[in-house]
Amino acid sequence: MTEVSSLTGRLLVAAPALADPNFDRAVVLLLDHDEEGSLGVVLNRPTPVGVGDVLESWAGLTGRPEVVFQGGPVSLDSALGVALIPGDEGAREGSVHRPGGGAAPLGWRRVHGAICLVDLDAPPELLAAELGSLRIFAGYAGWGPGQLETELKEGAWYVVESEPGDVSSPHPENLWRAVLRRQRSELAMIATYPDDPSLN
Length: 200
Fold this sequence. Notes:
The chain has helices at about 50-55, 125, 145-155, 165, 175-180, 185-190; strands at about 10-15, 25-35, 35-40, 45-50, 65-70, 75-85, 110, 115-120, 135-145, 155-160. The longest helix has 7 residues, at about 145-155. With about 200 residues, the chain is α+β, with helices and mostly antiparallel strands. Strands 1, 2, 3, 4, 5, 6, 7, 8, 9 and 10 form a 10-stranded mixed beta sheet that branches. The protein is built from 6 helices and 10 strands, in the order ββββαββββαβαβααα.
C-alpha cells in the first residue's frame, strides 16, 4: 500500500464540476486523514437549528451564526465540536489538553495549529476560558481508504491551506468564494465561476 501524505488541517474546496449535491460548493476541513481514510466537516452549511435548541449548555460558547452546521452526510444524529484555541498555534498537533494537569484526557484534542476538536461530553464551564469560537456540526464527511485520493485525482477537490478564521467565519455562505479568492494561483479565478453556468 502506498504511503498517504496527511492532509489533516487542510481544506477541501469542491470543484465547480463536482456532481454530488452533498458537496456542491462545499468547503471541508479535514480533521483526520491517513491510510485508514479521511474525516472532515463541511464549514459552509449552516442549518436553521439554533445550538441552544439541541446543546443548550454549549450555546454560550458558539460564535455567530449561533446555529448548528451540517458537517456532512454521515451520522447526522451525532455532533462534533470544532473550536479555536487562541494564542496556542505553536503547540504540538495531536496533543491533548489536560486542565489542572490531570491524567485523563479532558476537553479537547488539537487537529492543526489553533484548530481543535472539542469533547462535547466535557463540562462547558471547564473549557470556557480556553476556547475561542466554537462551531457545532451535525454529522461529518467521511472517505474510506484511498477514496479521497481517487476523488483528488479525478479533480473533484482543490486542496488548500486552512486559516483559523475559516472555522469561525460569520458569513459561511461566502466561504467557498472567499477561500478560492485568497489563493495565489489560477484557483483565484475559479471564485468567479457562476452559480449556474447555463445562464451565461
